[in-house]
Specification:
The complex is a heterodimer. Chain A is α/β, with parallel strands linked by helices. In chain A, 42% of the residues lie in helices and 24% in strands. Chain A is globular and about 55 Å long. The termini of chain A are far apart. By secondary structure, chain B is α+β, with helices and mostly antiparallel strands. Chain B has nine helices and twelve strands. In chain B, the strands form three sheets. In chain B, strands 2-1-5-4-3 form a five-stranded antiparallel β-sheet, with helices on both faces. Chain B has a five-stranded mixed β-sheet with strand order 7-9-10-12-11. A two-stranded antiparallel ribbon of chain B has the order 6-8. The longest helix of chain B is centred in the first third of the chain and has 72 residues. Classes of the chains: A alpha/beta, B alpha+beta.
C-alpha cells in the first residue's frame, strides 16, 4: 500500500482526508506543522507527500525547498485558490503538482495515483529506452535528464512532459494528449497548469546557444520540441 | 492657468501698479514746489545781479559792467547774458542772442523792478533795470536753461540700468514668492497622485520643510489622511487573506466529508449529495471571485507590465470558451483579429476577456454563436464580444458592471452566474487604464474592451 504523508495544520481536514484516502486504498499519516513535516518527509518511509502552503513554524515553500535539497519525494502542494504566485513559486521550487484548496478529494486521489504511477516507472521502466536529441539525453530507466553533461533536476511532471516531447521531437504534441498522458486527466478549458509546467520546464532546460527556445508553444494546439 | 503663473503675474502687476502710483504722486507733489523754488531763486539772483550791475556802473562805468557781465557768463549753471538799452540797442551780448525779450524788457522799463518770465518750458528769463551814471537806462536780461529734473528711468544709460535693475529685482522677487507659495502645493499634488496610484507609504511632512503656515498644516493633514488610508487598506488586505483562509478551511473539510458521505451512502441520497457538492463549488467560486475583486479594487494587485500578444490571447481564450460553449450547443467564433500587442498583466487581461466571454456564452441563446473580434483602432486595441441573448434593458446597461447586479432575478440564477464576472472584467481593464462598455446590438449584448496599444518590437 502506498504511504502518503499529509502536512497540513488543519487537523480535522487531515482526519477526513485520511479517512477518505484510506478507503481509496492509501496508507495515510498526518503531521500538523512544517518542521515535523519536513522531518517525517525526510525519513524515507513515504511514497508521496501532500503539503499545504500555510503552515505553522515553517511554511510549505520552505519545507519543500529543504526537502528538495535531499529528496525527490513526490509532492502535491495545496495552494490558495486564485493565487497564481503560490502556484508558480510552488512549481518552481519543485512541487510535482498543485491543487487549489478547497479541493475535490476525488481529484486529489486521482492526482496521487498519477504521480505514484509515474514515480513507479523509475523502477520498472524500459531500461533500454534512451533518447538523445541535440545535447539533451533522457534515460527512462534512471529518469534522468542530462543536458550538455549537466544533470537537470526535474519534477516527475516535467520529466513526463519532456519525455513525451522528445519522443515526438520535431512534431507537434497536442495539449490534450499531454494532459492525458502526463497529468492523467482530461484537458479542461481555462486550465493553465500545463502551460505552467511547460514554462518551468523551459526555464530549467534553458535556451540554445543562439538564444532560441527548445520548446515552442503552438497556441491553442500544443507544444513542439524544435529540432535544429 | 497654472497657479504659479497666476501668482507671479499678480504680484508683478501689483508691484508695477505700486511703482506707478508712487511715481505719479511724487511728480505731482514734488515737482510743483520745485518749480516755484526755481522761480523764487531766479527772481532773487536777478535782483542781486541787477543791484551789483548798478553799483559797478556807478563806480567803474561801461567797461566795469562789461567785465562783470562777462564773468556772469562763466558761472555755473550755464546762462546767457544780454544788456539791452532803453532804445532797444544791444549794449552787451555774450554768446548767442537771447530771443523774444521785448515783452520782458518793456515790463522792466515800465516797473523799474526785477521781472521774470517762465512762459517757456525750456528757459527761465529774468530782467533787471540798470541805470548808468550818464542817465542811460538799460535792462539786464539773463537766460537759464531750465532742464526738467533728470528722469530716473529714462533717457540715459544710467537710467536704463536703474530701470533694468528695478524690473529684474521685481521679477526675481515675484518669481521667488510664487515659487515659495506653489512649490509645496505641487509637492502635495505629486504625493496625492502617488497615493492614488497605490503607493500608500507616501508622506509629505519632509517635503514642506520648516514651514509653519497653512500649507504646512495641510501637509500635516495629508499625512494623517495617508496614514489612515494605509492602515485601512492594510487591514482590508489582511482581512481578505484571513477570510480566504478561514472560509476555505471549512469548505475544504465540507468537500472531503461530502465525498466520504458519497462513498458510504446508498443511491437514493446521491442526487442530494451531488446538489450539496454543486452548491459548495459555487460558494467556493464566489469566494475566489470576491477576493479577486477586492484585490483589484484596493489596487493592491501590482501590475508588472509585460508585452502581451493580444491576438494570441484572444484566440486562446476564445478557443477555451468555444470548448465550453460546444457542450451547451452554442459556439464562439473569432470573426476577425488584427495584430495587436499591449503592455500589461497577462493574467488580468486574460481574466477580463475570459469573464466577458463566459458571460456571453452563458446568456447567448442555444444554437447561436458568440462573435469575438479584435481590431486595431488608432492607438487602441478593441476587443468586441457580441452575444445573441436578447440584450439588456437600455436603462440597466451601466449597472451591468456593478458587483452582484442582476438583470432580472430569474435570469441569472437559472444560468448559474454569480454576478461578479463583468465587475472583475471592468476592474481589470481599468487597472490597464482601458475602457469597457456595454450596449445592445442586433438582439444581443455587445461588450467592448479598449486598451492602449503598444508598438510591437521591431
Amino acid at each position: 500500500m502506498d504511504k502518503v504523508l499529509i502536512i497540513d495544520d488543519d487537523e480535522e481536514l487531515c482526519e477526513l482526508v485520511s479517512e477518505y484516502l484510506t478507503v481509496e486504498g492509501f496508507d495515510i499519516e498526518s503531521v500538523n506543522d512544517g518542521e515535523s513535516g519536513l522531518k517525517r518527509a525526510l525519513s524515507g518511509e513515504y511514497d508521496m507527500a501532500i503539503l499545504d502552503v500555510m503552515l505553522p513554524k515553517m511554511n510549505g515553500f520552505d519545507v519543500l525547498r529543504n526537502l528538495r535539497e535531499q529528496s525527490k519525494l513526490p509532492v502535491i502542494m495545496l495552494t490558495a485558490r486564485g493565487d497564481d504566485m503560490e502556484r508558480i513559486v510552488g512549481l518552481e521550487i519543485g512541487a510535482d503538482d498543485y491543487l487549489p484548496k478547497p479541493f475535490n478529494p476525488r481529484e486529489l486521489a486521482a492526482r496521487l495515483r498519477a504521480i505514484l504511477r509515474r514515480s513507479a516507472l523509475v523502477d520498472n521502466g524500459d531500461p533500454s529506452e534512451k533518447i538523445d536529441v541535440d545535447g539533451v539525453q533522457l534515460s527512462a530507466a534512471s529518469r534522468t535528464i542530462v543536458r550538455e553533461g549537466e544533470e537537470l533536476n526535474l519534477t516527475s511532471v516535467e520529466f513526463g512532459l519532456l519525455h513525451e516531447l522528445l519522443k515526438e521531437a520535431g512534431k507537434i504534441v497536442k495539449k490534450e494528449d499531454l494532459s492525458e498522458s502526463v497529468l492523467e486527466r482530461k484537458l479542461s478549458p481555462y486550465d493553465r497548469s500545463l502551460d505552467m509546467h511547460i514554462s518551468n520546464l523551459r526555464k530549467k532546460l534553458g535556451t540554445r546557444a543562439d538564444g532560441s527556445e527548445r520548446i515552442k508553444t503552438i497556441r491553442s494546439v500544443g507544444y513542439i520540441y524544435t529540432l535544429v | 492657468m497654472k497657479l504659479f503663473v497666476k501668482i507671479f503675474l499678480w504680484f508683478l502687476a501689483a508691484i508695477a501698479l505700486t511703482g506707478f502710483v508712487i511715481f505719479f504722486v511724487t511728480r505731482t507733489f514734488q515737482t510743483q514746489p520745485l518749480v516755484s523754488r526755481i522761480e523764487r531763486s531766479t527772481r532773487n539772483q536777478m535782483t542781486i545781479y541787477g543791484g551789483t550791475a548798478n553799483q559797478i556802473a556807478a563806480s567803474e562805468g561801461d567797461a566795469g559792467v562789461k567785465t562783470f557781465l562777462a564773468r556772469l557768463r562763466e558761472v555755473e549753471p550755464p546762462r546767457e547774458v544780454l544788456l539791452i538799452g532803453q532804445d532797444g540797442s544791444i549794449l552787451y551780448a555774450g554768446g548767442p542772442e537771447i530771443k523774444d525779450t521785448g515783452e520782458l524788457v518793456a515790463r522792466v522799463l515800465a516797473s523799474g523792478q526785477t521781472e521774470t518770465d517762465f512762459t517757456s518750458e525750456e528757459r527761465s528769463l529774468g530782467g533787471a533795470p540798470v541805470n548808468f551814471p550818464d542817465g542811460r537806462r538799460g535792462v539786464l536780461v539773463l537766460q537759464w536753461e531750465r532742464g526738467s529734473p533728470p528722469s530716473l528711468f529714462w533717457g540715459s544709460w544710467l537710467a536704463y540700468l536703474r530701470l533694468g535693475g528695478v524690473l529684474l529685482t521685481a521679477i526675481l522677487l515675484c518669481w521667488l514668492l510664487a515659487l515659495y507659495l506653489t512649490s509645496p502645493i505641487r509637492k502635495l499634488r505629486e504625493a496625492a497622485q502617488r497615493l492614488a496610484a497605490g503607493d500608500l507609504q507616501t508622506r509629505v511632512a519632509d517635503l514642506v520643510g520648516r514651514r509653519r503656515d497653512e500649507l504646512a498644516d495641510l501637509a500635516g493633514d495629508f499625512d494623517v489622511m495617508a496614514e489612515r488610508i494605509e492602515s485601512l487598506v492594510t487591514q482590508q488586505q489582511r482581512l481578505n487573506r484571513d477570510i480566504s483562509h478561514e472560509l476555505r478551511s471549512p469548505l475544504a473539510r465540507l468537500n472531503v466529508a461530502l465525498e466520504i458521505a458519497k462513498q458510504k451512502s446508498g443511491p437514493d441520497t446521491q442526487p442530494m449529495l451531488a446538489r450539496i457538492e454543486g452548491e459548495s463549488t459555487r460558494l467556493n467560486e464566489m469566494i475566489s471571485r470576491l477576493l479577486i475583486l477586492a484585490k483589484l479594487e484596493s489596487g493592491s494587485e501590482e501590475i508588472e507590465p509585460v508585452r502581451i500578444d493580444l491576438t494570441e490571447l484572444v484566440r486562446d481564450v476564445a478557443a477555451d470558451a468555444d470548448f465550453e460553449a460546444q457542450a451547451k450547443g452554442k459556439a464562439v467564433e473569432v470573426s476577425s483579429a488584427d495584430r495587436c500587442t499591449v503592455m500589461g498583466s497577462e493574467n488580468l487581461l486574460r481574466s477580463a476577456i475570459e469573464n466577458v466571454l463566459r458571460n456571453a456564452v452563458r446568456y447567448t441563446a442555444e444554437g447561436t454563436t458568440v462573435d469575438v473580434s479584435l481590431a486595431a483602432d488608432n492607438g487602441n486595441a478593441v476587443v468586441r464580444v457580441a452575444d445573441h441573448g436578447g440584450g439588456v434593458p437600455e436603462e440597466e446597461l451601466e449597472n451591468l458592471f456593478r458587483p452582484f447586479y442582476r438583470v432580472g432575478e430569474a435570469r441569472d440564477r437559472k444560468t448559474g452566474g454569480i454576478g461578479l464576472g463583468l465587475a472583475i472584467a471592468q476592474r481589470a481593464v481599468k487597472a490597464h487604464k482601458g475602457s469597457i462598455t456595454a450596449k445592445n446590438l442586433n438582439g444581443g449584448l455587445l461588450v467592448e474592451i479598449g486598451v492602449g496599444r503598444s508598438e510591437p518590437p521591431a
